[in-house]
Amino acid sequence: MARIVGVDIPRNKKINYSLQYIHGIGKKTADALCTKANIDKNLRVHQLTEEQVVSIRNAISELGYLVEGELRSSNAMNIKRLKDIGTYKGIRHRRGLPVNGQRTKTNARTRKGKKRTIGLGKS
User: Is residue 80 part of a domain?
Assistant: First the structure.
């Protein structure tokens, strides 16, 4: 397996699909990296030479993409900032509710968790 930015990418897939296994790299970014590094998109990862792998690493750093740990920490810091200054979105993050205006009366089970029914109990 080729190791790029701390991630082992699959060997038997084409390079532009394998690069998408790195957090922060999607389809368009993978295509841009292949063109920047002068690598054919139809090559499989196990066919790459060591120089080509190094050129992909250099292309990621040259184009200034945040990937893997840097991206995760950046997102966490952005959410923490929203929580600290007390914005509406920060409060929604703090309470574990949907942030972007989705309804919560019926759906939002992914964000709210398993439904907990409150029973009547003994009276």
Answer: no
Give the total number of structural domains in the chain: 2
Structure tokens at 16: 């532009």
pLDDT digits (tens, 9 = 90+) for 26-48: 999 999 999 999 999 999 999 99
Report residue 117's pLDDT band, with 50, 70 and 90 as the boundaries.
Answer: confident
16 and 61 share one domain: yes
Which tokens hold the place of 107? 């759906």
Residue 74 inside a domain? The answer is no
Tell me, yes or no, whether 15 and 63 share the same domain.
Answer: yes
The DSSP-derived string for 25-39 is --HHHHHHHHHHTT-
At 32, which CATH number?
1.10.8.50
Distance, in Å, from the CA atom of 49 to the CA atom of 53, rounded to the nearest integer, reads 7
Cβ-based burial of 107 (10 A; exposed 0-12, middle 13-18, buried ≥19): exposed
